[in-house]
Amino acid sequence: MVFTEKESSINIPEKKRLLRSDHGTTYFSISDNFNEFDGLWSYGFHIFQRVFLNGKYRIAGKCISRFHCEIAYYNNSHVKIMLFKNNQGFWFSPYKKAFSHGAINYKFVIPSAFELINAEKNVIFLKYFAPKRDGFGVESLYVAITCEQNLYFEEVCATQNFLEFKQKKVRGEKKDAGILFLYSGSLDKLKENVKVKSNLTDILIKQHINNCSLTLKYSECKTNLSGLNRALNFGSITGSYFIMSKNNRIGIWAGFPWFDNSWGRDTFISLPGIALVTGRFEQAAHIICVFLKYQDLDKNSPTYGRIPNVIWNEKNIMFNTADATALLIRELYEYYLYTGDAATIMSVWNRIIIAVDAVYIAHKDRYNFVPNENADDWMDARILGEDPYSPRGDRQVEIQSLWFTALHAVVQMADELIRRNENYSPLLQDIDISVVKHKRNEYLNEAEKLQRSFKKMFITDKAPYIYDHLNSDGTPDTHIRPNVLLAMYYNDLPGIPKFIDRDSGLLAFKYVASNCVFEHGVASLGRYEADFHPVHISTMYHKDAAYHNGMIWCWLSGAFINTAVSYGLQKFAYRQTKALTHEILYGATPGCLPELFDPFCKDGKVNASGTYSQAWSVSEYNRAFYQDYMGIRPNVPARRLYFTPHFPAEIGGFQTKVRYGIYETLYLELKTNLKSENISTIGIFAQEIIQPLEVIIKVDIGCEEIGGKIESKSVHLKIMLKSSGARMRLGFDFVENNRFKLKDLYVSSNAELVSMETSGETLCESAVENLTYTQPLSENDIGSYRCMLEEDYMDKKILGERFDKEKRFS
């Protein structure tokens, strides 16, 4: 697969934002050169905010590619920027035109306390005194600005918020200019770095290009649409930006610029789309083990067994999350499916048992539900850290689904340990196989009781069909929220039984879609609810009042797409994917996805809010495309690959590379018939496999009404790839009455078509009947909401006489 330069780069207009990170502690971001978060950041220090180049600061435009960024100034000067991996440096290289007067004049705006330590011919040393962001473990930062021997600095001057100098060339030198920023918490280490790197920029640049090429090594995907290719490329590239380090802990930062921490919930929602579908398995394992390292092991603690919500530092760890522990177990199992890495499972097995026993078994109620406090779920906004804006206590729909899934995930991993023991494969000494067998049976029994109670108490034959949560008194809550979509998505893993029956799931999905799902995203509250907020930022209320009471959260699109395609509704879901794709290419921060959108689109334009790049937003865009639309789900321990495409016909087709386990690689190809909107061709190539591999393909072939019921039909094919180089290509021809024939078949000598059969699934009603997105908001709609008519409506409703406006907005 060869991508054009256009498919590997995005042009960025004047005032829109550019973002780049180094996978260490450093990132560079720039919009209009005046935003407080613009500039270069490292170890929490704001090294500079903006740069005057030859007296000019206004930016005409920008461009971002896999390898570098470019910035164009209005004086026709252009700068190429590279951020070298893992704190190896920041390269700032003006093009030749900048030297038109024999020198380049630099003026850096530095909104931090700093001092000039020393200025020499080829290096300037600075010291920064106080970080703007906490938790990096560095109290002072030392920065060196260097250039090669063919260049030199003159007229270096430091004032309170500025650093100015000129850069000149040695006479006759034709090489492009450039300055290299190096940074360290130790002045001695920085000086050693300067000695090694100041004259090796060519080598650093070559290493940088090689490192950037690895970003797409295991996530190459090419479709028939050039714009979509760019969005998918940058989804993978930007996803890697969130894998950062803080205080020597590698993790997934939640969002730029202010969520520069690895939060438990955000990490494990983001892990599939950032580290699994992209083949970054080694990083995934490390991230999982880091969180288990900080598990609460104090038996006297009320949060015993939980993994952290956030690690501020070694002595300040918060465990106030009701879902992160079950999410970690889910992702440990999904990591195992992608890699077959039983060694990691064994290394953390006893920690997982503590998590289940202390967090689920010890706290479940008589119905096997896990009660949780208000705002300990993902809808966690509170008034001054206390009263919840969106109370969902105390039994939330998605958390019950998570624990059902987690229990079955542990059962599946226990089966692997039991199998290894029976096959005389070595287990770690601290794993007692008799305890493994006992826990397996116990958890299976608890999961079955949980599902029976859920069916009895959460599912109803009237709208909303599945309740969002049960209140502490046991009554069901009927507010319309999208969390049932999360409940169905969280449960969707190979080897895990379905938690919610298909008919109830379909009815709930259609009800949520018509109330919460706009074409540009999924709202956190139904648009017809009294507490709905149409915009995030308003003079009428605090922004946190709107946070989970109407705002569209980009990451929720992943759960929506997952559920939609499971009912064959990929054409319907892809309308929302196109809106997200447009945001990646042309939004406020091209190449990225923000935290939030306003539900209301003024003049038809989507308005981003919250963080300008959010990990789980980008992750779910990636994951949904690979797992849901392309339908690729590995099960390496079972030597299977599930290929269940629900591919939007208008895309035309795709080619993709799949990292299977640690050492194996496959290529998959699919084409659609644009006229019939059906799949026409599927191709599989085993580039490198170690053992025979079974590929199970499921293709939907349509629905028909039988006896008042709707039957959804599909064809199932089982293919055996016996060794590296095995190939198979299938051509389909669909005919009337939802039937198809196998038109073409090519099977290499080391592959086999084992079986082919059709099956049907009966649903209570047609998936497409009465299926709609919620209606867009008009200007008249905006003025009708209580929050727009009564100032601070939510705060007054929740606090009553305790409301103090001055205290709230101080």
Account of the 3D structure:
The protein is α+β, with helices and mostly antiparallel strands. Helices cover 30% and strands 29% of the residues. It has 19 helices and 44 strands. The strands form eleven sheets. It has a nine-stranded antiparallel beta sheet with strand order 1-7-8-9-10-17-14-13-12, with helices on one face. Strand 37 (653-660) and strand 38 form a beta hairpin. Helix 10 crosses helix 13 (556-566), helix 13 runs antiparallel to helix 14 and helix 13 (556-566) runs parallel beside helix 15. The protein is globular, with a radius of gyration of 28 Å. The two termini are 55 Å apart. Residues 1-5 have low confidence and may be disordered.
DSSP summary, beta strand count: 44
The shape, in one word, is globular
The total count of helices amounts to 19
Strand-residue proportion: 25-35%
Helix content: 25-40%
Outline the low-pLDDT stretches: 1-5
The average pLDDT value, as a whole number, equals 93
- Determine the N-to-C terminus distance: 55 Å
* Largest sheet descriptor: 9 strands, antiparallel
